Amino acid sequence: MAVTFSDLHTEQGVKSVEEHLAGKTYISGDQLSVDDVKVYAAVSEKPSDAFPNASKWYDCVASQLAKSFPGKAVGVSIGGSAAPAAQAEAPAQAEGSIPECLILVQILVSLLFVDYDQAPAADDDDDMDLFGDETEEEKKAAEEREAAKKDTKKPKESGKSSVLMEVKPWDDETDMKKLEAAVRSVEMPGLLWGASKLVPVGYGIKKLTIMLTIVDDLVSPDNLIEDYLTCEPNNEYIQSVDIVAFNKI
């Protein structure tokens, strides 16, 4: 239902807005609308503290309208009079009618709330290319940017490393074949066991030297030793493991 306000330049008119806004944020609905801006345009100045609802509403509308006009305002006053002939012909302005400056505000409001989705499309013949054709340099730069984007999407290949380990038994009674079998039983993505040989240490004890290739992002040598080679059940044969050489491939 339409709401009617009158004499909004008077205290009685502002009082009617105050009463209407009791328990409300906006004139109509729960969002800023053309109704709010029309009433705002008709109110000559911010309502006093005697009208808390209207004063709060006035500040809210002013704040939202300011976002649509980001330029810094210094304040203006509009004056002047019509030419003598025009004054003689024009009827006197009725008391309480909306000044011309407020009519301008309403025109701006109509521009702010225009529904561009409903606006008719311009004829193709009227289209204007404001920026002209794209130059060769611009095309080349655009192609390079697209190529750079595609390169960043390509998965990067992980590096590989070659590792030489020394695996030591508990004593000379340790079965070295079972020890090597325990080492090679460890399998995981990115791990490839290579050549191996037994090297005498002394007192009848031998150690196993073994090569392995790892994918750096998938296998950690320290993790391989601590969580697989020197823990159960492999620690039945393996006393310790040392990394002798580590080379990037």
TrEMBL record:
The keyword Protein biosynthesis applies. Keywords: Elongation factor, Protein biosynthesis. Residues 137-159 have a biased composition (Basic and acidic residues). Residues 124-136 have a biased composition (Acidic residues). It holds the Pfam family EF1_GNE. GO terms for molecular function: guanyl-nucleotide exchange factor activity; translation elongation factor activity. SUPFAM superfamilies: eEF-1beta-like, GST C-terminal domain-like. Residues 124-162 are annotated as: Disordered. Residues 160-249 form the Translation elongation factor EF1B beta/delta subunit guanine nucleotide exchange domain. It comes from the Eukaryota. The keyword Secreted does not apply. GO terms for cellular component: cytosol; eukaryotic translation elongation factor 1 complex. EF-1 is composed of 4 subunits: alpha, beta (1B-alpha=beta'), delta (1B-beta), and gamma (1B-gamma). Belongs to the EF-1-beta/EF-1-delta family. EF-1-beta and EF-1-delta stimulate the exchange of GDP bound to EF-1-alpha to GTP. PANTHER family: EF-HAND AND COILED-COIL DOMAIN-CONTAINING FAMILY MEMBER, ELONGATION FACTOR 1-BETA 2. This is Translation elongation factor EF1B beta/delta subunit guanine nucleotide exchange domain-containing protein. The lineage of its organism: Eukaryota, Viridiplantae, Streptophyta, Embryophyta, Tracheophyta.
